[in-house]
Amino acid sequence: MGVHLHLAAVTEVVIDFPPVNAVPAAGWRELAEALIAAGSDPDTRVVVLAADGRGFCAGVDIKEMQRTPGHEALLAANRGCAEAFAAVYDCPVPVVAAVHGFCLGGGVGLTGNADLVVAAEDATFGLPEVDRGALGAATHLARLVPPQLMRTMVYTCRTVSAQQLHRFGTVLEVVPGARLRAAARAVAEQIAAKDPKVIRRAKESLNGIDPVDVKRSYRFEQGFTFELNLDGAGDLARQRFVEGQ
């Protein structure tokens, strides 16, 4: 249980928080630290970000928030998410996200900041934030879907399939679940075969020409989550979710 790091030329960072990879506050920071360690290793040429279990990521652990008095868990989760998403984006080598099952909330934050995405046939992507009394990761969803669809997904909390994202070109390949890790490694190894100095500079240059500062825009979104909590709407929505389980 936790985040597993397997250092190599193609380094694997694996999310593992059973049963549904709803990541606790400390887990987001653990994930950020693993990604930073992977990128800091001079032998790492590419990172594959994957997950064990039923789905890639169910987002933050809302039950942890509701059983923790005050706003300590909420604040820790929000800061941890920002750190983990930034660690994907700032990783000095390309990050390949290997997504299976559900990719929700924080999972979209990770995937949207990845350099490329390979998905299993059963993968679905969505932001249930509005139903949870929160906002955030529209920044990252906007890197996966067109603007009006992004807005529709935020307002309605509907999901999209890996096949839809493949048609948009934001998922590179859709494969049977049993082949997901192998497919992600195959494209990672293709990149890893290139000159590592050139690839690292390519990653830096591509981040430098991005039209949106994903770290600043995500923190802007999070400010509205804090506002919703101050007026009580956030806590009510989270409690409805917990009681509905």
Automatic annotation (TrEMBL):
InterPro entries: ClpP/crotonase-like_dom_sf, Enoyl-CoA_hydra/iso
Pfam families: ECH_1
Signal peptide (residue range): none
Keywords: Lipid metabolism, Lyase
Gene3D superfamilies: 2-enoyl-CoA Hydratase, Chain A, domain 1
Transmembrane stretches, start-end: none
GO terms of molecular function: lyase activity
Biological process annotations from GO: fatty acid beta-oxidation
Family: Belongs to the enoyl-CoA hydratase/isomerase family.
Protein name (Swiss-Prot/TrEMBL): Enoyl-CoA hydratase
